[in-house]
Amino acid sequence: MRDDETPKRLIVVGDRVLISPEEGEERTNVGLYLPPTALESRQVQGGRIIATGPGTPMTEPTSMDDEPWKIHSADVKYLPMQAQVGDYGLFFRKAAVEITFEGKKYLVVPQAAILVLVREGTPEEVE
């Protein structure tokens, strides 16, 4: 197989999510209503989460001890992401970076820019 025939895939890094954007409307596909001011100024936008990064890397507690010559584990620990593949996310448009991959437009958004997530299934915190 030649290099140009090898399938490519996007790998999302850190605390970022890959979103398939939804075009702005007063009511989103999942039933969230957005005020006209948010739509006109394009402050917020929504879309379906396609992929997530592993989360925010955390330092190993032993790496901060007084004996830096000790050999430490090479395993990186991550603070897990709240966003999951399949969720609908409403996010600050200003924080998003638009990319095109294989002819399709996506947005890369840091998890901190996501305002709310809509997830199918049983509610955990909302009653």
Explain the overall architecture.
- The protein has 127 residues and is mainly beta.
- Helix content is 4%, strand content 34%.
- A hairpin with a 2-residue loop joins β6 (97-101) and β7 (104-110).
- The longest helix has 5 residues, at 36-40.
- It is globular.
- The mean pLDDT is 80.
How big a fraction of the residues is strand? Answer: 25-35%
Order of SSEs, N→C?
EHEEEEEEE
Strand pairing plus helix content: what structural class?
mainly beta
Number of distinct helices: 1
- The CATH first-level class comes to Mainly Beta
| CATH architecture assignment | Roll
CATH topology: 10 Kd Chaperonin, Protein Cpn10, Chain O
Query: What portion of residues is helical?
Result: under 10%
Largest sheet: 6 strands, antiparallel
CATH superfamily, by name, is: GroES chaperonin
The mean pLDDT is: 80
Distance between the termini: 53 Å
Number of strands: 8
Tell me the number of structural domains.
1
Could you provide a short overview of the structure?
With 127 residues, this protein is mainly beta. It has one helix at residues 36-40, and strands at 16-21, 44-52, 56-58, 77-79, 88-92, 97-101, 104-110, 114-118.
Can you lay out the helices and strands and say which pair or pack?
Layout: E1 16-21, H1 36-40, E2 44-52, E3 56-58, E4 77-79, E5 88-92, E6 97-101, E7 104-110, E8 114-118
Give keywords.
127 residues, single chain, 10 Kd Chaperonin, Protein Cpn10, Chain O, mainly beta, two-stranded antiparallel sheet
